[in-house]
Amino acid sequence: xxxxxxxxxxxxxxxxxxxxxxxxxxxxxxxxxxxxxxxxxxxxxxxxxxxxxxxxxxxxxxxxxxxxxxxxxxxxxxxxxxxxxxxxxxxxxxxxxxxxxxxxxxxxxxxxxxxxxxxxxxxxxxxxxxxxxxxxxxxxxxxxxxxxxxxxxxxxxxxxxxxxxxxxxxxxxxxxxxxxxxxxxxxxxxxxxxxxxxxxxxxxxxxxxxxxxxxxxxxxxxxxxxxxxxxxxxxxxxxxxxxxxxxxxxxxxxxxxxxxxxxxxxxxxxxxxxxxxxxxxxxxxxxxxxxxxxxxxxxxxxxxxxxxxxxxxxxxxxxxxxxxxxxxxxxxxxxxxxxxxxxxxxxxxxxxxxxxxxxxxxxxxx
Length: 366
Description:
The protein is an alpha+beta fold. The chain is about 30% helix and about 30% strand. The strands form 3 sheets. Strands 10, 11, 12, 13, 14 and 15 form a 6-stranded antiparallel β-sheet that branches. A 5-stranded antiparallel β-sheet has the order 8-7-6-5-9, with helices on one face. A 4-stranded parallel β-sheet has the order 2-1-3-4. Helix 3 crosses helix 4. The mean pLDDT is about 95.
């Protein structure tokens, strides 16, 4: 008896390229096009129901003004504020989805979208992560005075300050301190005359502690996570990290990102680096790099796919996980790593191929 082909449903923004890329992957696998359930409908109707045989994939709710307004309560998509409100409303919306076979566990998503909780889960599992005084979320960060006190107490002259529920480096501030009161912050956040915070595509630096304090005080109400600055390896004259996609427990795709600023995000001026050069630099430790990413993904067994941001040490002998992203698979045109089982497949096709095994081992959340 042959196994029945899965029927797909995707919750997303229908106009978004993520939905289009996934739709193409399903069709190219010879399956009927997925049923698309808009996030706008989920938020308007208070949920959505799925048939017992439907395989349900969640796509990012980003890049849609109406959805962003419903989740964050802001009309300007460039605004940084509203992360805590977004988190509460998004995780609540996820729990209004019923039925089907889910590829994104609601409890795990709630952890993945809180950097403090995610760090704690990884750390407890023995996954290497930068040291953090806010791991788990039990230590309040009410503003710059708390940041100063925590970093001084833990001997952290160089740290990354991350909004607890942020993504795409939104609101991230890299802070470096030295003797005689010297300080420098690097961020893509711009503050307008009326005190509002906006994302910018331009990374800027400031050495004014007064300006840094005002920025951190404005970010703090949405929650802040502090991590010790991990000295990254360098390729082509820039700081280097990797986005590694893990599908059904296996590292399948990887892209190298390099930048002359602390933020390697491609939309902030980072560049795609040479993966062959990275694997050569790591040598026999490349297997350790992929295994570290798979260990991070294993902390979220009910989630089919995650994107792991991996930082190699200066000598390429150690690795630490900076982030685990629930929607970290947008790498158009990138095919699978040799030996991954996803050779010739992009990230979406790899997930379609992995679903039969995954769905045999996971049930819909109660």
